[in-house]
Design brief:
alpha+beta, elongated
Length: 66
């Protein structure tokens, strides 16, 4: 098990992706960039992408870590 930083991306309230980083600064960089995106138009209204970084222990042999 290895401690990494999970970049969790949401579209509205739905989780769409998780990426893992060894360095918290890299995780924060991508989270900041994603959070600056404009809203996505939808039939029921606009939704936004939101990204957060969270520490997590994962099996580094099964997951790709950036």
């Amino acid at each position: 098990m290895e401690l990494v930083f999970a970049l969790i991306t949401y579209l509205g309230v739905n989780r769409v992706d998780i990426s893992y980083f060894r360095n918290i600064d890299s995780c924060f960089y991508f989270a900041e960039r994603i959070n600056k995106n404009v809203s996505v138009p939808r039939v029921e209204g606009e939704v936004r992408y939101t990204a957060v970084c969270q520490p997590k222990k994962i099996n580094s042999k099964k997951e790709k870590i950036y």
